[in-house]
Amino acid sequence: PEIAIKYPSPGIPYFVFLKDGQKVSDLTGANEFDRWNIIASGQGEQSIIRLQGDNHYSGNTYVQNSTLKVNDDKNLGSTQSILFLDEGVLAFTPQKFELSHNVEIGVNGGGIYSHEIATQPDQKIKQLAIISGDITGSGVFSKVGLGDLVLNRDTSFTGDWSLREGGLLLDQDSRLGNGKLTLKGGKIVFTKAFNDLRGINVGSLGGTIDNNSLNVNVKIDKWEKTEQTLTFSGTGETTITQNIQTEGYNNHTLIA
C-alpha cells in the first residue's frame, strides 16, 4: 500500500510517497501538512494503511482501493475536512468509534468496517461505528464486518446501501438519504418504532430484519432469484405491508 500526500495547488500535483514494503504503514505527524490532502491508495480492501496522531491538517482525506485504519476521529485532521471513500474502507481500532467528519462516497463505492474484537482469549465483543457527519455521494455504501453501524443524523446520500455483514441500527428512514437499501447477508436493527422504512431489497446471502422488541412495518421490494434465507428476529411484531416481489420463490426461505 501507499500513502500519498498531495498539495492542493493548480497545475501538476506534487506527490510524496511513503513505502516500507509492509502491509501496515504508519503515517504520523500529518499535522505538519496544513492545507494538504492525505491520499491513501493500495491494491484492494486488504491493503491496510494506519493513520495515527492528533492531526490538524485541514485538507481532505482520500481512501482509494484500500482500507484506512484509525484509532480516533482526530487522526483524520480538521473536523471541517471531508473523508472521501472511493473503493475505500474506513476501519478503526477501539470497540466504539464516532466519526464526526462528513463522508463522501465515490462512484466506485466505499464503506465502513466494524467487526469483533477479542477482550479475552475466548471472548469477543462487537465494534460499534457511529457516523455523526453527513454522508453524500452516489456510489454504493457497504457495511462490512460483524460489528454494528449507527447513523446519527439525516444524510444527503443519493447512493445505495449494501448491508454485507453486521448490523445497521436505524431509528428513522431519513438517515439513509434517497438510495435503495439492500440486504446481502447483513442485518437491519430497529432502535425505534417507525413504519415508513423504505422498501428493502433482498440480495445475495439474504439477511435479517430485527424488530428489537418493537412493533414495526416493513416492505420487501424485491427478492433476488438466488437461493437464500430472510430471517425475522426480535420479540416485537414485524408486519410485511405488501406482497413480496420475487423470482423463483420456491428457492427462498422465510424464518420468523
What's the N-to-C terminus distance? 44 Å
- Biggest β-sheet: count, sense, barrel? 15 strands, mixed
Roughly how many Å is the radius of gyration? 19 Å
What fraction of the residues are assigned to beta strands by DSSP?
over 45%
Low-pLDDT stretches are 5-26
Shape: globular
Tell me the structural class. Answer: mainly beta
Number of helices in the DSSP assignment = 0
* SSE order: EEEEEEEEEEEEEEEEEEEEEEEEEEE
Number of E-type strands: 27
Q: Provide mean pLDDT, rounded.
A: 83
Query: Percent helix among the residues?
Result: under 10%
Question: How does this structure look, described?
Answer:
- The protein is an all-beta fold and 256 residues long.
- It has strands at 2-6, 15-18, 24-27, 37-41, 48-51, 61-70, 82-92, 96-99, 102-105, 110-113, 116-120, 123-126, 128-131, 135-137, 141-144, 148-151, 161-163, 167-170, 181-183, 187-190, 200-202, 207-210, 216-218, 220-223, 228-233, 238-240, 252-255.
- The strands form four sheets. It has a 15-stranded mixed β-sheet that branches.
- Strand 11 and strand 12 (123-126) form a beta hairpin.
